[in-house]
Specification:
With about 325 residues, this protein is of the alpha/beta class. Helix content is about 55%, strand content about 10%.
Length: about 325
């Protein structure tokens, strides 16, 4: 087995073969991954930033009992909704799961739609130090008191390349870029440029699923209706009864925040559902945009499972 050097840690990484299934929400990644897993003696590692949470089943479209019975799943349904989780933690845990699965003589399949999780696993993150919460808080307070344009001027002074790409009103990205510079002393634009040349950490056959945008949006609307019928509102209300605040990061995700708006009587139910469908479609569009920029993806329709099995067989032999 060949090895490479992790440029973030200068330690060797074994180049295990893995299969990665990605694509937008509602396109059928779970069923596709299960079909491949059954065909190649594989186990599935989830790559979804919401399916990690316990008690949040309907709104995350978490694999159900029948699906879980067809193939082993990892990194699904293991974290309390009150806990935060980031791409760095995901990459570390998924890397260990890949080792465990490979040592059993089985094939790891990474399946999910959280692009940053997948990128962090396949290529690592471009920063090696953790986010400085104190610096973030100070920058956030400055943005609230003086405005994002003030911080954008600061960013232009220390990292003009980043400032040129970030809109003066995009406070989130401005704060993130300033935090990186103030914490590490290195401009975020330089880190991103260098990161573009980092070698992959695994040999990955990466399959992206796509379909006609109109058909996908119809599927999304249908799935939202199904979630409502399955009891999404009751699921969110039950989480609140368990003591989970609607202000938690997990509860601000798509579906949960929409039902939260209704529970707080900020919107009527029909309006909440309308916005849930709209925001899910918009999220799918953003996912398409993200994955279209990622290197090495083979694009298939969900119906092309036979073609995928052939690709997997050739890849593993």
């Amino acid at each position: 087995m060949s090895t490479i050097i992790d440029q973030n840690t200068d330690t060797p990484l074994s180049m295990e073969k893995i299969i990665t299934i990605c694509g937008p929400t509602g396109i059928g990644k779970t069923g596709f991954a299960i079909a491949l897993a059954k065909a190649c003696n594989a186990e599935i590692i989830g790559a979804d930033s919401m399916q990690i949470y316990k008690y949040m089943d309907i709104g995350t479209a978490k694999p159900d009992a029948a699906e879980l019975a067809q193939a082993p799943h990892h990194l699904v349904d293991f974290l309390d909704p009150s806990q935060d989780f980031d791409a760095g933690q995901y990459a570390q845990m998924a890397a260990q799961k890949i080792i465990d699965i490979t040592q059993k003589g089985r094939v790891p399949i990474i399946a999910g739609g959280t692009g940053l999780y997948i990128r962090a696993l396949l290529y690592g993150l471009f920063r090696s130090c953790p986010v400085c919460e104190k610096t973030l808080a100070q920058l956030t307070r400055a943005a609230q008191e003086k405005g994002s344009a003030y911080l954008h001027h600061q960013l232009h002074a220390c990292d003009p390349a980043a400032a040129q790409k970030i809109h003066p009103h995009d406070s989130f990205r401005i704060i993130r870029a300033l935090e990186v510079f103030q914490t590490t002393g290195t401009p975020i634009s330089q880190m991103q440029k260098e990161h573009n040349f980092i070698s992959p950490r695994y040999q990955s056959l990466t399959i992206g699923l796509f379909m006609d945008r109109k058909i996908l949006y119809e599927r999304i609307d249908f799935r939202v209706d199904a979630m409502i019928q399955q009891g999404l509102l009751a699921e969110v209300a039950g989480l609140v009864e368990k003591g989970y605040s609607l202000d938690l990061k997990s509860m601000q995700s798509i579906g949960y925040r929409h039902m939260g708006w209704f529970l707080k009587k900020e919107l009527d139910f029909d309006r909440a559902v309308f916005l849930l469908k709209r925001d899910t479609r918009r999220y799918a569009k953003r996912q398409f945009t993200w994955f279209r920029k990622e290197p090495g993806i083979i694009w298939l329709k969900p119906s092309q499972i036979t073609r995928a099995k052939i690709l997997v067989k050739d890849f593993l032999t």
